[in-house]
Design a protein that fits this description.
Elements: H1 2-14, H2 29-38, H3 40-51, H4 57-90
């Protein structure tokens, strides 16, 4: 009975979504939308720092370093949070680091 209940809970939690075949996050449509459309104003801003008048290369490089630092902080923080959530609630590392798909020996199903 415990196995049947566990499989039933997995069906409810995962809603039939399968693993993305070791490409979680890339190169799905959201990636193209974010980097190709939404970030266009940022691209224009960075290009204008170096191609516009008056040019100040030192300030432009400072701005680029700020943008890289903020982006790295967000991506690294979310990566660490994703790993913690995967370990605590799903019993293993997320898909690019661990096995694809749901795990039957997850701690969330351990009480069943």
């Amino acid at each position: 009975m415990s196995v049947a209940l566990s499989m039933g809970l997995e069906t409810v939690l995962y809603h039939g979504y399968e693993a993305t075949g070791d490409v979680t996050g890339f190169p799905n449509i959201g990636t193209y939308l974010i980097f190709g459309v939404i970030l266009v104003p940022i691209y224009i801003m960075v290009i204008s720092w170096f191609a516009g008048e008056p040019r100040d290369t030192k300030t432009g490089l400072l701005g680029v370093s700020y943008l890289v630092g903020i982006a790295a902080q967000m991506w690294i923080g979310m990566f660490i949070l994703t790993v913690i959530i995967g370990l605590v609630f799903y019993g293993g590392m997320p898909e690019p680091l661990g096995a694809a798909g749901p795990s039957n020996d997850s701690p969330i199903f351990g009480f069943l």
